[in-house]
Amino acid sequence: MHDTFINDxxxxxxxxxxxSRDHAQRVAIYGMALGQKLGLSSEDLQQLRWGLLLHDVGxxxxxxxxxxxxxxxxxxxxxxxxxxxxxGDQMLAEVEGAGLLRTAVRHHHERYDxxxxxxxxxxxxxxxxxxxxxxxxxxxxxxxxxxxxxxMTVAEAVAELRRCSGTQFDPSLVDLFLSVSHRMAxxxxxxxxxxx
Length: 196
Hints:
Elements: H1 3-16, H2 20-38, H3 42-53, H4 64-67, H5 75-81, H6 84-92, H7 101-107, H8 128-142, H9 154-164, H10 171-180, H11 187-195
Helix pairs in contact: 2-3, 2-8, 2-10, 3-7, 6-7, 7-8, 9-10
């Protein structure tokens, strides 16, 4: 996996949906902090970072008008959005060195209780990278202003993670994430430190 490939795809995502690149970078930072706390090897951390940077790459296969639409989607439009993890996995299928990172891309919308997509996996059937991605992706979405909702406070986001622990998210990873998330409360300086 080359940085050029990642940067090119992040740029395409940014053109499709402004803010996507910054979102991906923050999700990767959160995931790296959690991966380090889990004691992942340097090779696994690199795969995790790539997977988190590219977790939404499959949105390039969803029509722009659906991705950018600020209101409620129809059932048909939502079904198209739900295909983005599979599209992303397909895009990476021929990429040399994709390895583990594809599990974060394909399964980051699975739920711990089995009610997620695209495969309806549950608990430890969900690959570790995807369980990490689910928490980090949701955390960033909650803390970021969106066209359809304002950002939550950190306290509100913590409460939401706790509320969804054991249903949407792996409870052991939620606890671990919350033990390191205080380091990321001031996200602009944290991002600058780890990306620059």
